[in-house]
Amino acid sequence: MALEDARSQVDTAFTRPGLRGYAFENAFAGATSFLRRTYTKDLTGVDLAVTGVPFDQAVTHRAGTRFGPRAIREASSLMPFDPPAGWPTNPLEDLAIADYGDLAFDYARVQDFPDALTHHIRTILDAGAGAIVLGGDHYITFPTLRAYAEKFGPLSLIHFDAHSDLWPDDDLSRIDHGTMFYKAVKTGLVDPRRSVQIGIRTTTEDYLGVNVITAREVHEKGADWAAAAARDLVGDHAAYVTFDIDALDPAFAPGTGTPVWGGLASWQAAAMLRDLAGINMVGGDVVEVSPPYDTTGATAIAGAHVAYDLICLYHWARKER
């Protein structure tokens, strides 16, 4: 779309003719759909759906990630004017990407939430689209993985985080953002041999066979080494990428519920995401952005960049196949 024509449009989140193309609009006005993608509940012809899950009732410490999807969308309005830097791909032009809005759920019926989210993601996958999920606390990845495993079988998980989230918990009815990957491994949603956690800097007694790359190893051996190791472990297996924003050091992402020092720098995360290009990524999420703990908005900006890079990874995986 030419710049002159774009200026004649009124809020392309609603008026874009089709699901492709950039939004040449004021970043400070208009709807806060992700990257000014079209807001729609019609998945016809959609390649990739961005959807928010404003849930934070599984946290162990500070709540606030229910505001994450809105903040990430708002931060993404700073980004839609150029192709993604460092990528040999142009997903906004090549993919039909829609903002599918947020999952609607009754906050007072927490017990119903997991099934509601699994159904929400299943609806997207059944329409032939992939999903990029904006959290919300990290528990949301577990119901999401259930829908993905129904379609793809046991998944490779590439997990960026300060914490393993593998603490023992055999009660599937418990909703906890620190135990969901224990459950994902134990219930067969994730293949631990083909999975890897990156940025870990807390202690877990049993990693259940999941491969671990600590934050210190990334610092000492390099982001390129870590990405290459992750690619080798995952191979061509269907992979889901989950990025807890506390994988970043609090200096780069203070707005999160359980910050841990010694984490990844923004440039390291960006380099690793780009160097993962070529994996068979089928979906992903960015979680634990908690705007109340960051008045600068830097954490949400980081989350928006992660989500855009996940879109690029998804696009590159489709081009490779």
Verbal overview:
The structure is a single chain. By secondary structure, this protein is α/β, with parallel strands linked by helices. 33% of the residues lie in helices and 15% in strands. The chain is globular. The mean pLDDT is 94.
Please provide a brief summary of the model.
With 321 residues, the protein is α/β, with parallel strands linked by helices.
Indicate the CATH topology.
Answer: Arginase, Chain A
Radius of gyration: 18 Å
SSE pattern: HHEEHHEHEHEHEEHHEHEH
Mean of residue pLDDT values: 94
The CATH architecture comes to: 3-Layer(aba) Sandwich
- What's the count of strands? 9
Number of domains: 1
Strand order, biggest sheet?
1-3-2-4-9-8-5-6-7
| Major sheet description | 9 strands, parallel
CATH superfamily, by name, is Ureohydrolase domain
Q: What structural class is derived from the secondary structure elements? A: alpha/beta
Terminal CA distance: 28 Å
Low-confidence stretches: none
DSSP summary: helix tally = 11
Overall outline: globular
Residues in helix, %: 25-40%
Strand content: 5-15%
Look at the structure and give the CATH class: Alpha Beta
